[in-house]
Design a protein that fits this description.
single chain, 120 residues
Length: 120
């Protein structure tokens, strides 16, 4: 099983980025997906997660209304659209997969992380 996260970079406050997680070795038809982030000196926290069928989605309060998780079960990819970015969104972002929601930090499958830096 491999999860490959990409799309991070440097963006100014108020800007947007789209992260993508390419999944191989497991089917998104049967797995929930979560996005997490870890800022320097802080614990890893959940940002967004979505059920295998896409019918259930959950967001951290800090990103509600700004971030959107979406999936393509044919391409086996999961995206995180991030708008109105703030400096406090700066972190390494990870995607993770589990058999069901909620997707927690104990999820069995993880990507390698992609760095998002929000700074002017």
């Amino acid at each position: 099983v491999q999860l490959q996260a990409c799309g991070g970079g440097l963006v100014q406050p108020g800007g947007s980025l789209r992260l993508s997680c390419a999944v191989s070795g497991l089917s998104l038809d049967y797995h929930a997906i979560g996005w997490f982030r870890q800022a320097p000196g802080k614990e890893r926290e959940g940002v967004a997660c979505q059920s295998s069928g896409g019918g259930s989605t959950d967001y951290a309060d800090s990103v509600k209304g700004r971030f959107t998780i979406s999936r393509d079960n044919i391409m086996n990819t999961v995206d995180l659209q991030m708008n109105s970015l703030k400096p406090e969104d700066t972190a390494i972002y990870y995607c993770a997969a589990d058999r069901a929601m909620p997707v927690s930090t104990r999820a069995p499958f993880w990507g390698q992380g992609t760095l998002v830096t929000v700074s002017s």
